[in-house]
Batch of 3 targets.
Target 1
Amino acid sequence: MKTPVTVLGLGAMGTALARAFLAAGHPTTVWNRTPGRSPELDELGVTRAATVADALAVSPLIVVCLLNDDSVRTTLAPAATELSDRTLVNLTNGTPAQARRTADWAAQQGAEYLDGGIMAVPVMIGGPAAFILYSGSEVAFERHQAALAELARPQYVGSDPGFAALHDLALLSGMYGMVGGAAHALALVSSEKISPTAFTNDLLIPWLTAMLGTLSQIAADLEYGAAPGAAGSNLAMQATAYVNLIDASVDQGVDPAMVTPMGELLDRTVAEGHGDEDLAAIVRLLRKVS
Ligand SMILES: NC(=O)c1ccc[n+]([C@@H]2O[C@H](COP(=O)([O-])OP(=O)(O)OC[C@H]3O[C@@H](n4cnc5c(N)ncnc54)[C@H](OP(=O)(O)O)[C@@H]3O)[C@@H](O)[C@H]2O)c1
């Protein structure tokens, strides 16, 4: 028999996780604060637990996917004694500090702990493009890796329980930078009679795709140091051109709120004497902020 699993939380994501476990043949018990959520799971053979304690009692593998850290703590605390000898996998979005605190708390209850970061939207769960970052107990990861692989490709990023959240939030930073930049780009072109769809499909996506190739070089420069004068697009040049981006936005009646901070960072980096370097210099500047 496949490992019985319990899923706490039947929001959009928890429901997708439960569905994937059921589809893979895992006996699946669920609990949700508001009873009766996601009735479609009943046809798939889900077991509904009346209480959190009941839900924890029946499975060695407990997957929690609630709104935030507060909801995880208030949900688990009253049933803490049921966590002994369980593996607690917390897929709720949170910070590294929250993950480390929950790991310590879980250890006090006698549970193995894995923190996770879901790099997917619910419809991707169980599909090939989704992956989930895990950190914490390596023993627990190895024991339950096959079951966790039913949800998404599992990627273990270290024994520090905070590392999954750190990687998750770093990846989200990259995503929000991209979508924020795209939002400003679309505001600019739609200030004129330019098709946002054609602009996006014919120009923006190919451009961003091409620029993705520069990220590896920035990372390598950060890690190993760039050769002097290696920057093909030095920051002093970029800071000068960037002023046009702000000015054109204002001229077109577009709020520059999204793009102004990057201009300020470019200016600061140049002012600190790094105008002949590349974007790795901005990373160094950001890391100085405590
Ligand atoms: N959806 C995504 O695209 C996505 C992607 C990656 C990661 N995530 C993360 O996955 C987690 C769940 O997201 P979701 O999309 O499933 O959210 P959601 O649809 O808004 O569902 C939230 C869930 O949390 C429960 N909840 C909220 N407050 C609670 C409390 N105080 N005590 C107990 N339960 C509480 C809700 O229960 P009720 O039904 O009773 O309200 C519901 O089950 C979040 O941390 C989110 O950041 C989501």
Target 2
Amino acid sequence: MTALPKLGIDIGTASIKLVELFPVGKGKWKLGAIGSEITPPGGVLGNQNNLGVIAAAVGKTVKESGAKNRRVAAALPEEQVSSHVVEIPLMSDEEVKQALQWQVEQYIPIPADKAVWSHEIIRRDEAGGGMEVLLVAAAKNLVDSFVRVFDMAGLEVVALETELMATARAVVPADVPLSMIVDIGAKSTDLGIVRAGQMVFARTIPTAGEAFTRAIEAALGLASGQAEEYKRTYGFDTQKMQGKITEAMKPVMNVITAEVRKTGDFYMSKHRGEQVKLVTLSGGVALVPEVVNVLSGLLGMEVAVGNPFNRIEMDKNKTSQLLGLGPFYAVAAGLAMRTS
Ligand SMILES: Nc1ncnc2c1ncn2[C@@H]1O[C@H](COP(=O)(O)OP(=O)(O)OP(=O)(O)O)[C@@H](O)[C@H]1O
Ligand SMILES: [Mg+2]
């Protein structure tokens, strides 16, 4: 089955990102359109009256990018989704859905009748070890709000998944047995464990890009716009501003690092013999100068920059225009790479 071209649209708290891809072979794509816009305050999670405002911003992103397709794969914010790997006895694919139906409530924080859930079989051990199923659930009204936003923007949602599932597809090489994704956005950092290309564990912490900016504001007595600019321009470069920006951001980085380590340790304590050997960094904060080296140093582990553009053909102009922006577009690119 050849995949159809589609738009991947990531509505983040800070910005909306769009990537349009045309499949050109197995695991290869050609870039159609790409672009981003600032997300209006409140986002999709704000009150219902806000949906029209978000829809207009999504519509603007599509229009200005020049995208031709209207079929969209979208991501639900990680902190609003519960994903669990459930172990069940060996059974047929058809039986799994039924079996889960009676168990779903014990894994999700909302009543089953107010939730939308789906599952994916991720491991099947014919030798008697049973099977592992990834169960993903979200509140029905959240899903409805997302679908409405795209509907109002004249788009059709053909797939919904989580931000980390999309990122895993876009930036984690399938031949890495066990790795971790760290997506540092504006308000939240999403941490995901990926086993052979498949997301198997996810959590979110409310410390991300805005926390770095606030730390600079407080330490140097700057207005937030100026602090944001210093963060983007100097980042963790100790040679700039006598290292003051780096110093200010360090405590925030320590919090994130500790959570990354905790997440990896937690997973490995439950799965003896499996070892996280690589961290892939994505999200807007991955663009902050030197952040990759700092994280790698603090973790004592290899940290790669998540770049979805490796597998996307584009002309030379676009390549140079998008240089370094891969991690920012990782979720949107991963969504557009879905085969269904
Ligand atoms: N060019 C850049 N250089 C440095 N930092 C950047 C750059 N672009 C964005 N950022 C930072 O990345 C953060 C936003 O990242 P991103 O766009 O991934 O967030 P989001 O997806 O909208 O938010 P969230 O995932 O929390 O909902 C901001 O804190 C911003 O300062
Ligand atoms: Mg994001």
Target 3
Amino acid sequence: MKFCPKCGSKNINSPLPHDMQKYECKDCGYIGAFIIDDREIVEEIQKEYLKNKNKIEE
Ligand SMILES: [Zn+2]
């Protein structure tokens, strides 16, 4: 299982057919080669992301 390093979503795919090293997150728009596969780290990222997101929306 792979996760977005920015928002912690698992809703990611490879955007470029000629560059399979890069992934795209469908939830936050992140594009990059760095992908998280550690569930504990992902939970921390999701918590921080939601905190920041709520701050912006307030
Ligand atoms: Zn994301």
